[in-house]
Design goal:
Helix content is 28%, strand content 12%. By secondary structure, the protein is of the alpha/beta class. Helix 5 links the parallel strand 3 and strand 4.
Length: 203
């Protein structure tokens, strides 16, 4: 298991603790460089700025965009959307959104310009949380919830337009919970845990 979150999920799922081997999350070492931002602007009553983080699958991203476009008028009238496509699916004419609202660049460079982040179940949502953003994870009805925030009440999970609207409204009066990368993953620079695994395997 690569962190406290994965360990907890396995134990709660009935996996014997003695069969769990801890190791550093090599894929997520970049999270060590992410610092929780203190200066995100609080959502305003008007012109609420929402950044949509695209998924690898264009169809999944378009499902999320369709749900956002179907929000009730009171919310839709005060929300302005921008899309940051997934790096592997960056062809802008494939998305159901005005091309002028499509952004590229590092998430850490963009996120302070937005009040709320809407994402699918990809790892980008985790980056947004660690950067101090308020995050709504959208799981389309036809998809499975693979989000690492399953069961986490500080990140809103929505599967319908109504739930997305409720999440956005709730975030207008709450502050984001501050996390560190180590709350989710083992990220020892010296790879102590992996060294133990290798030593056992070579005996």
């Amino acid at each position: 298991v690569n962190g406290p979150m994965a360990r907890r999920a396995h134990v709660e799922g009935g996996w014997p603790e003695e069969m769990l081997v801890e190791c550093e999350a090599l894929r997520y070492f970049h999270l060590n460089e992410i610092r929780n931002e203190e200066n995100l602007r609080a959502p305003q009553a008007e012109n609420l700025r929402v950044l949509v983080l695209g998924e690898h699958e264009v169809d999944t991203t378009n499902q999320i965009l369709k749900m956002l476009k179907s929000l009730p008028t009171p919310i839709a009238n005060v929300v302005k959307y921008s899309l940051k496509p997934h790096p592997a699916s960056a062809q802008t004419d494939l998305y159901l959104i005005d091309r002028t609202s499509v952004l590229n660049g590092r998430l850490s460079d963009l996120i302070n310009d937005f009040d709320i982040v809407v994402a699918g179940t990809s790892g980008a949502a985790l980056d947004a949380v660690l950067l101090g953003s308020k995050v709504v994870v959208v799981v389309p009805p036809s998809s499975l919830n693979f989000s690492p925030f399953r069961g986490n009440t500080s990140v809103k999970v929505a599967s319908s337009t109504q739930e997305i609207g409720d999440a956005i409204n709730s975030f207008r009066v709450t502050s984001p919970v501050k996390y560190k990368a180590q709350d989710f993953f083992y990220l020892n620079d010296d790879l102590t845990l992996w060294q133990r695994v290798v030593e056992v395997g070579t005996r």
